[in-house]
Design brief:
Elements (H helix, E strand, L loop, with lengths): L7 H56 L15 H6 L5 H13 L2 H4 L1 H18 L1 H15 L4 H16 L8 E6 L6 E9 L2 H7 L3 E7 L7 E7 L4 E2 L4 H9 L38
Antiparallel strand pairs: 1-2, 1-5, 2-3, 3-4
Helix pairs in contact: 1-3, 1-5
Amino acid sequence: MADQPTTFSGDFKRFFGRGLAILLPSILTLWILWTASVFVYQSVALPINAGIRRGLIEVSPLVMPAEPERQPAWYRLTPERRTQHPGKADREIRAAEFHKVWDAYYLWATGLIVAIVLIYLAGVVLGGLLGRRAYLRAEALISRLPGFKQVYPHVKQLVDLVMGERPMAFKRVVMVEYPRAGIWTLGLVTSNSLRIMTERTGQRFLTIFIPSTPTPFTGFTINVPEAAVIDVPMSVDEAIRFVLTGGALIPDRMLPDAAPGVGNGDDGPVAGLPGTGRGAGA
């Protein structure tokens, strides 16, 4: 049976979908990085820069020498500058002139540098015994405030999952029949189960965490006989990404082979699609 001739519409859809699949990950990655950079710049760097400028303006009269020739150019209140800024106080004139000096590109990074240093110092202080105790007390207070107590614990749990210093307690990835026989679910082994289960049944049990989608830091804890568990050659990170995306992100080595009648992404004919010669009525 001769293949039906391809059409412009079919070729366009196929190649457009292929191009979108190739370019979209890179475009989304660049967009996320750009958006994060703009957020950090506007929400962190600019406020810190404004605070530094304001602080320097407030402190400058206390540290500046009395002789005008020894003062920086932006600080001098010449008659020309008073004419350029009519009706403004001395502090406002100096602030406007100092802002011009601060326009140098290398000074705009000051806010980011200060933010990095402050975060580092916060980690050093709060990492100590006294700092950690004070932080835990403040955290307990925040967790009881209306509004915060509904959001803060979940945000903290997510941050600890992603950036926590302690390694994840999950030991390996397994498959178990859950919630009923015939349905296989990915689970994360946390430990051997309670001793009483082994004593009462004569079998070794494993404690397994079943993450939920799309929030894998919540889920169910079940106890399964070790003999009923099948190991899966995936890392814990890969399993979490699999659950987080609802099964959309599968490691390349774990991709299933194309089933009969299912396309595998190549240029060969696909059953049931126009232009392949295998659809209905072919």
